[in-house]
Every structure is written in C-alpha cells, then in structure tokens.
Amino acid sequence: MKPVVHLSDLYRMKKLLRRVKLNTVCEESRCPNISECFSSGTATFMILGDRCTRSCSFCNVKRAVKGYIDPEEPFRIAEAVRMLGLDYVVITSVTRDDLALGGAFQFFKTVRIVKELNPGVRVEVLVPDFGGSNEAVELVMSSSPDVFSHNLETVPRLYDSVRKGADYHRSLNIIRMAKKINPSVVTKSALLVGFGERFDEIEKVMDDLRGVDCDVLTIGQYYMPSLRHHPVVKYYGEEEFLRLKEMAEEKGFKMVVAGPNVRSSYKANMLEGIL
Question: What domains are defined for the chain?
Fold first, then answer.
C-alpha cells in the first residue's frame, strides 16, 4: 500500500530547507520519491553547494568548473536535523574535483557536528569518488559514519557515455578502502538500470561489489530528467526487478532493495535493522 502524502508536511519541509539555506539531492536530481520522503520528514542533505564539476549524462544536478564552500553549512544541517526530529540522516554531495581531497573535509566536519549536536542520530554518507584518494576516504571514515555509500550507477561498458570523468574500478576501490579501514561499517552502493545494460553485465557488477565486501545494494529504473540527458533504452518490469533482487540476495548482500522508483537514499532508515 502506497503511503499517504500529506502536502502540509511536504510544504513544511521545503519551507524549512529554504529558511536554513540547504540543498537536497531530492530536489536537485528530481527524485521521483520526493513527495513521499519530504512528507515523512526524510531528506538527503547535499553539501558543497549545488554545482558539480562533472557531466554525467543521467544526472540533473547543475554543472560548473568550481563552486562555493559554505563553512556554516554543517551547523545548519545539524540544526535542521534537530528541528525535524530525524534519527537517521544521509549526507551526500556533488563531485568537487576542484577541491583538495574532493571536499572530504566538509563530509568530516558535517558528520562530526551533526552527531555532536544530535546525540544518538545515525549518519549515512553517500560520497563521490574523491578522485580515488585514499586520504579522502580515511578522513571521511574518521568521522565515524554509520553507513558508507558510493554508487557505481551502471555497468563498466557504459561508463564513458553515462559517467563521464568517473572510473569503474576506482569507484569499486572506494568501497574496498572504506571496508578495509573499518570492517564493521555498513557499505552500500546503487545501480540504475535502463541505459542499455545486459543482465549478465549487472550480475558481474554484483559479483564485483561482493568482491569488495559491499553489504547493501539498491537498484532502480533510470528516468530521463530532460531531453538533453541520456535516453532510456529499456523500462524494466516488476518481474525483472524481482529477478534482480533475488539474484543479488543469492550473492550474499545483507539487504537488497529493487524497484522502478528505488534510489540509493530511498527509505535509507531501513538500514537500522542491520546496523
């Protein structure tokens, strides 16, 4: 049964975010679940501004060579968490190749301040690849996130057309490094389907993720944010998502969420059960 969306809650969330001058990936990416999540008081906060230095063809986030860094941003996020009464928070960011360590210091600062000012809150970080920097991953992990996420998004063959500027094996290594630093941390990744990938390619990605001890996988349908973006090559049916979910579960993931509107941070607090 689909949850009831209360518009009053949705407007309250949007109003609070505007008041504290915060960005959410929910709005920037035109997530199909924004009404459901906002109305339930859930959001994925996006740090380091709203301009990305890369040009992924599936993403709706705005592009720029560089962007602004707001030193007060972590404190405003912590305040928003308190005002909304959240007990599970997701912190993500645009990719900032223009910054030292890809902006990892802002993740460190935000996680620390959110936890310090909101005792008992769980924090998930959904990070970019930081250019493959071990030091950046070590810095983020030193802030003690409860969940470390990095999305592969698609299969290796499609990286050049879908994730320009990214590298499949570099992304895998980000997850490997996080798990090596702290084996007890929950690691997580996500795939979008519909770019033209084959089932055998998806299965190989699942194997690669389990090879770096990734715990959680989400799989959702890609939708074009606009006519300028990568075309949808295929729409997957419910039976196909069920097949992908069962395939992933058989490979040993602790949790798998798959469906047309599933996104990496959708109902992220479901992870409470395995933390």
Answer: 7-274 (3.20.20.70)
Q: What is the DSSP string of 85-96?
A: T-SEEEEEE---
Q: Can you name the residues that pair with 188 across neighbouring β-strands?
A: 149, 216
Q: What is the pTM of this model?
A: 0.86
List for the chain the helix, strand, coil content (%; round to 5). 45, 15, 40
In terms of Cα–Cα distance, which of 90, 98, 89, 185 is closest to 137?
185
Q: Using an 8 Å Cβ cutoff, are 206 and 199 in contact? A: no
| Token pair in block for residue 100 | 């030292």
Length of the chain: 275
Report how far residue 178's alpha carbon sits from residue 147's, in angstroms, rounded to the nearest whole number: 10
Q: 135-183: per-residue pLDDT in tens?
A: 999 999 999 999 999 999 999 999 999 888 899 999 999 999 999 999 9
Q: The tokens of 93 are what? A: 């960011």
Comparing 242 with 266, the larger pLDDT belongs to 242
Alpha helix locations (H) across 118-273?
134-141, 159-162, 168-181, 199-211, 238-250
DSSP secondary structure letters along 182-222: -TTSEEEEEEEE-SS--HHHHHHHHHHHHHTT--EEEEEE-
Q: Measured on CA atoms in the order 194, 63, 67, 18, is the torsion positive or negative?
A: negative
| Residue 164 CA from chain centroid, whole number | 18
| pLDDT of res. 29 | 47
Q: What is residue 5's DSSP assignment?
A: P
